[in-house]
Write a structure and sequence with these properties.
This protein has helices spanning 2-18, 49-72, 182-187, 189-198, 353-367; strands spanning 25-26, 33-34, 93-101, 111-118, 122-130, 132-133, 141-152, 164-172, 176-179, 205-225, 228-248, 254-256, 260-276, 279-294, 299-315, 320-329, 339-348. The protein has 368 residues and is an alpha+beta fold. The chain has a 12-stranded antiparallel beta barrel with strand order 3-4-5-7-8-10-11-13-14-15-16-17. The N and C termini lie far apart (57 Å). Bound molecules: zinc ion.
Length: 368
């Protein structure tokens, strides 16, 4: 309840800022607010020519300021979750954190990422990723490391609209131990029905556990079309499951230690639109792997679920931005399950610090 209220307040606050309007013409004679098209004050009929030229000047200054803001902005090399073909600036460090918050439960635990740019062409990243499954409440988080490199860097051949291409590999750091919890099993209809009807036949499931790890390889292309950027890519996911252990209430346990492997081919696409210098509209759709314990086969079935997120990225400063939107997954049963996605992006332009001091030092010298 508390978090939900805070999130709603933040969203309303951001939208308010995003839609702040241009100022009116204020008559210097009587302080009456006038429409921008007015030649004369609607109250005292004085000419508004001076006010209009002052307004134009102010707007031009604002435009220059906004262009500077955009060009100096550090944009995370991803939308909400899907990667783009951008990479972090050389030696720049990014810290990102966030999660998805639903009405029923916090489905994704707090997920964090730390990344560093290498030579304006590659980046390394350590992050925790949520695992979608049907045996535990929420998504257990898995530590991963990733490496991304651009094959076609930005503005190749000096062409502004040339697509950027990058490839990446992300791997879980270790085997992740996933354990069912009783509440999740009970609130799952299939499990509940199974256990209700099979109680007497003495094979009701009491717990499920297994170890898993994965590696995701992907290629992504970014198409810059002025204020709109489109990102699209293909993913190959190699998922391993081992040490499968199922406990029954009345029966003996069933342990399957051997490793199983599955390859899943998926994809993602999204776009971002520059709304104003501080706000971007972002929409993304992707496949995500889903682990589901199957009561018939008594195994973890690996398949795809589709995830869609739409919302905004708002820049507080050039280095601090917040992503907020609504998330929906096809394994949800209705829109009441949709979640608020919230993320914070902080950059340390460590690569630019020597440059920054140099320029401010030069400016000081020039002034004296
Ligand atoms: Zn007036």
């Amino acid at each position: 309840m508390g978090t939900k209220t805070i999130i709603i307040i933040i969203v309303v606050f951001l939208l308010n800022l995003a839609f702040s309007e241009t100022p009116d013409l204020v008559c210097s004679n009587c302080k009456q607010r006038n429409d921008i098209g007015n030649k004369f004050c609607s109250n005292c009929s004085e000419s508004l020519d001076d006010e209009y030229s002052a307004w134009l000047l102010q707007r031009n200054e604002q435009k220059i300021h906004e262009e500077k803001f955009i060009s100096g902005r550090v944009d995370p090399p991803r939308l909400f979750t899907i990667p783009t073909a951008r990479v972090l600036g050389s030696k720049d460090i990014s810290l990102m954190g966030g999660g998805a918050f639903g009405v029923a439960e916090v489905q994704q635990s707090f997920l964090g990422t730390i990344g560093m740019g290498l030579g304006n062409i590659a980046e390394v990243e350590f992050s925790s990723v949520g695992l979608i499954n049907n045996i535990s409440q929420g998504s257990p988080s898995v530590s991963t490391s990733a490496f991304k490199i651009q094959l076609i860097p930005e503005e190749m051949f000096g062409l502004k609209y040339f697509p950027t291409l990058a490839v990446s590999i992300r791997s879980s750091a270790d085997w992740k131990d996933v354990q069912s919890d009783w509440r999740a099993l009970n609130s799952n209809k299939a499990f509940y029905d199974y256990n209700e009807y099979t109680q007497r036949s003495e094979c009701a499931v009491s717990s499920v556990g297994y170890n898993t790890r994965f590696t995701i390889m992907y290629g992504v292309a970014t198409f810059p079309l002025g204020p709109v950027q489109i990102h699209s890519g293909l993913t190959l996911t190699d998922i391993r499951v081992k040490d499968m252990a199922v406990d029954y209430i009345w029966e003996e346990d069933n342990d399957v230690p051997e490793e199983r492997q599955k390859n899943l081919i998926g994809g993602f696409a999204g776009f971002e639109i520059e709304y104003n210098p501080q706000t971007k509209l972002m929409v993304e759709v992707k496949t995500d792997s889903k682990h589901e314990y199957n009561l018939e086969t008594k195994e973890i079935e690996l398949s795809h679920t589709y995830v869609a997120i739409g919302g905004v990225r708002f820049f507080f400063t050039k280095w601090l931005s917040i992503d907020t939107g609504v998330l929906y997954q096809t394994n949800y049963t209705g829109i009441a399950d949709s979640q608020i996605k919230l993320g914070l992006n902080l950059f340390m332009p460590t690569g630019n610090i020597p440059e920054y001091f140099k320029t401010s030092f030069n400016q000081k010298v020039r002034k004296e």
